[in-house]
Design a protein that fits this description.
The structure is a single chain. This protein has 452 residues and is α/β, with parallel strands linked by helices. The chain has three domains: 184 residues, 3-Layer(bba) Sandwich (FAD/NAD(P)-binding domain); 118 residues, no CATH class; 103 residues, Protoporphyrinogen oxidase, mitochondrial, domain 2 (Polyamine Oxidase, Chain A, domain 2), CATH 3.90.660. Strand 6 and strand 7 form a beta hairpin. It is globular and about 70 Å long. Bound molecules: flavin-adenine dinucleotide. The site of flavin-adenine dinucleotide (FAD) has 36 residues, from helix 1, strand 17, helix 11 and helix 12.
Length: 452
């Protein structure tokens, strides 16, 4: 078989590329029996719909907004975030650094004192730096001491000891499962709000309802879970161009032939949306340097435990962060607060997120559910009389790309090699980055501009 463009992977990135290729000559290959990737939803026989944890549409880009609205039409609702943090036996609003109200007084004082010290230290560094630049213009703009090279230092320098100790460090250690000294700050973008001292103090002594941060509001489908977006994109792509249940055996970058369980495909351009390390494994005889750089890429996996409970209105919150070590999960959320249609009447449904390092088996054992239930009771989310009426565990082997010091160079080297061989690797795992569904839609659209 021969086609101009092959898209590997039918997640939202691959589908966006296919959508934007319109009637051009292409084929999309997906290994599973349906498309969607981790933007898919799973429906149970007894009426629960589970996403791969919370998948909410935070939109910044005008094109992405129009695209989503055009596809989902009136099957879309805009929600104002209602997210919280559970720490020291109390719930406080998210983000922690501007919402310490409700925590024990001693902790609030520790956090504010730490923040003041951090701000003073920063002011001192800025003035030292500008003095140095004045004396020796060679240093101007280098921001020597001011430059934070790792996430651990960034936290202490930006938020001080208290906020770092009670939220930033334990939460991120739990999520990334990586020494935070080895994590760069390249992934942060605007994900972590940096408040002024005044904002932090206001939120420490009053119940501050101001919505701060990138995800203060979000869109979500009224019906069908996040899969509704996938289904809506798929409607615009001819069925004949999507091949599911395809196992790729190898990619020959010289002959441009993909060997699959359904025969060989000759291509001209290749858009890959599968995890970058997996793509390199499929390439026949990649240069040693490329294989070595691919080996340097690191990531964390997430086990997503979904449960249905025989009680309605379990909570009015959207999701809750759990920074403390005693809680096995880093976040838990309530699907039924995104859309009532996600669970049967009289019930509620939750997602729980536990991160793990690839290859560690311990997290997947059965005991984990008992620990989760016990943790949910400690936080008074579940009562001892509540019964589980549905359970569905979903594994996300590639969940968060680890931005360590090797990531940028490895990515650059691999991408350069791929482009030279007419392969473009995009999306959260193809582009090896921390990105959203909106970014995936835009990546698919951009990739198409590269196809002549
Ligand atoms: C825990 C978690 C929560 C998230 N929450 C949000 C959120 O709230 N909002 C948001 O905007 N984003 C969120 N994201 C990010 C979002 O899920 C991703 O940006 C997006 O789903 C990436 O889509 P993709 O198509 O690039 O990758 P994927 O969804 O991984 O798709 C890749 C596809 O390739 C297929 N594939 C893999 N290997 C092969 C192969 N060898 N051959 C053929 N096919 C193959 C897979 O089956 C899959 O269908 C979250 C991510 C995680 C992990």
């Amino acid at each position: 078989m021969k086609t101009n463009t092959v898209i590997i992977g039918g997640g939202i990135t691959g589908l966006s590329a296919a959508y934007h290729l319109k009637n051009k000559d292409f084929l999309l290959l997906e290994k599973e029996n349906s498309v969607g990737g981790i933007c898919g939803s799973v429906k149970t026989n007894n009426g629960f719909t589970y996403d791969y944890t919370g998948h909410l549409l935070h939109i910044k880009n005008k094109y992405a907004e129009t695209f989503i609205k055009k596809l989902l039409k009136n099957n879309l609702v805009l929600k104002t975030r209602n997210s919280w943090i559970y720490s020291n036996g109390v719930f406080t609003r998210y983000p922690f650094q501007v919402n310490m109200f409700g925590l024990p007084e001693k902790i609030i004082m520790e956090c504010i004192e730490g923040l003041i010290k951090a701000k003073l230290q920063m002011t001192r560094l800025v003035s030292d730096e500008s003095e140095r630049a004045n004396h020796s213009p060679r240093f101007a703009g280098e921001a020597g001491k001011l430059r934070t090279t790792n996430f651990y230092d960034f936290c202490l320098r930006t938020f001080g000891e208290g906020i770092s100790k009670y939220f930033m460090l334990p939460y991120n250690e739990k999520l990334w499962r990586t020494d935070l000294n080895k994590l760069t700050t390249d992934w942060m973008g605007n994900y972590i709000p940096r408040p002024s001292l005044q904002e932090a103090i206001t939120g420490a002594f009053t119940d501050n309802k101001r919505k701060i941060g990138y995800n203060a509001s979000f869109y979500y489908p009224k019906n069908g879970g996040i899969q509704a977006l996938i289904d809506a994109i798929k409607k615009h792509i001819p069925d004949t161009k999507i091949k599911t249940n395809i196992e790729i055996l190898s990619i020959n970058t010289g002959t441009r032939i993909i060997k699959t369980n359904a025969g060989d495909i000759q291509y001209n351009k290749l858009i890959s949306t599968i995890p970058l390390p997996e793509l390199i494994k499929l390439i026949k005889n990649p240069p040693v340097e490329i294989a070595r750089e691919a080996n340097a890429l690191k990531w964390t996996s997430v086990l997503n435990i979904n449960i249905g409970i025989n009680r309605k209105n379990l909570s009015d919150r959207h999701w809750i962060y759990f920074p403390e070590k005693g809680f096995i999960f880093y976040r838990a959320g309530f699907y039924n607060n995104f859309s009532k249609t996600l669970c049967p009447k009289g019930t509620s449904s939750l997602y729980i997120e536990v991160s793990y390092l690839p290859g560690s088996k311990t997290v997947k054992n059965r005991k984990i559910l008992q620990k989760i239930l016990s943790n949910l009771k400690t936080a008074k989310i579940l009562k001892s009389t509540d019964k589980i009426v549905s359970e569905c565990t979903l594994d996300i082997p590639y969940a968060y790309v680890i931005y360590d010091k090797k990531r940028n160079t490895a990515l650059k080297t691999i991408q350069k090699y791929l482009t030279k061989h007419s392969i473009i690797s995009i999306g959260r795992y193809g582009g090896w980055k921390y990105s959203t569904m909106e970014d995936a839609i835009l990546d698919g659209r951009e990739a198409v501009k590269w196809i002549k």
